[in-house]
């Protein structure tokens, strides 16, 4: 969560700039500094705001109703209706928050407005959209303790589907959460892409009906398996692009040129994976490389930061950044609950 927010903050001012303008303003990628607002705060975008909405909704639902603070056990049911209701409330709260002024995506605004009006979420979602707003916010799903793999996939896809109803948005969100879960549980860097490809192949025709209801029908698909397999196939293609680019890695090449611009969900995942895997070592590199890109820089850097943080833990990040990070108290609160 800290890595995601820091990547988001570093990529926020470069999101709509081309490489020439980024280099002129910030220099080479490996010397990029963390931007500070005039009041000395590391400011984030809607990516972190919506990630917190997902995290706080899940904290509300998966914590013991008796106030003990303990998580649900893996064998216990996390009711889809409760998860949906909590996500709806927190998304609407974000929609109306006075600090929702960070160039949020139109799909999120439209769908959250429909959720606020009380529409069933399958009618509120934008079924044609697979924008990266679906998976830039999914990291908390990977971090809730006690969830089964089936629950993680169902929740990852549901939180995406409330706003982005395209099957690729769902599959990319599931795969993004799985990448964070794998890294947080010790997956080696060179094993990450094969493990993600295996998860995609195993999930390819698995439609989580308990979580998604009749979304496939609302989207006009002939059947649920056909609907969801389309999304997984696009994600498999994106993973192949990452693997191809890493065969001749060039840390100085714009990652968007190597893998994709990141405006859509599977490309945001793929380009962030490339940024995480193509750099070595020090604590700035994954988010610097993600922020210094010609595409959706804040979402790419946010996910690259989430991957680096999952692999290395919260002490990986520079204290001079985390101590002045916007919403740091809310991020730390989830850490106290879950870690």
Q: Which class of secondary structure composition applies to the elements?
A: mainly alpha
* SSE order: HHHHHHHHHHHHHHHHHHH
The proportion of residues forming helix, as a percent range, comes to 55-70%
CATH homologous superfamily descriptor = ADP-ribosylation/Crystallin J1
- The total count of helices amounts to 19
Top CATH class: Mainly Alpha
Which residue ranges are poorly predicted, with pLDDT under 50 across at least 5 consecutive positions? none
Q: For the residues shown, what is the average pLDDT? A: 95
Q: Number of DSSP strands? A: 0
CATH third-level topology: ADP-ribosylglycohydrolase fold
CATH architecture: Orthogonal Bundle
What would you report as the Rg, rounded to the nearest angstrom?
A: 18 Å
The biggest beta sheet reads: none
Cα separation of the termini = 11 Å
Strand proportion, as a percent range, falls in: under 5%
- What global shape is seen? globular
Number of domains: 1
Explain what this protein looks like in three dimensions.
With 339 residues, this protein is mainly alpha-helical. The chain has one domain (2-63, 76-338): Orthogonal Bundle (ADP-ribosylglycohydrolase fold). Helices cover 61% and strands 0% of the residues. The longest helix is centred in the last third of the chain and has 24 residues, at 224-247. It starts with a helix and ends with a helix. The model has no long low-confidence stretch (mean pLDDT 95).
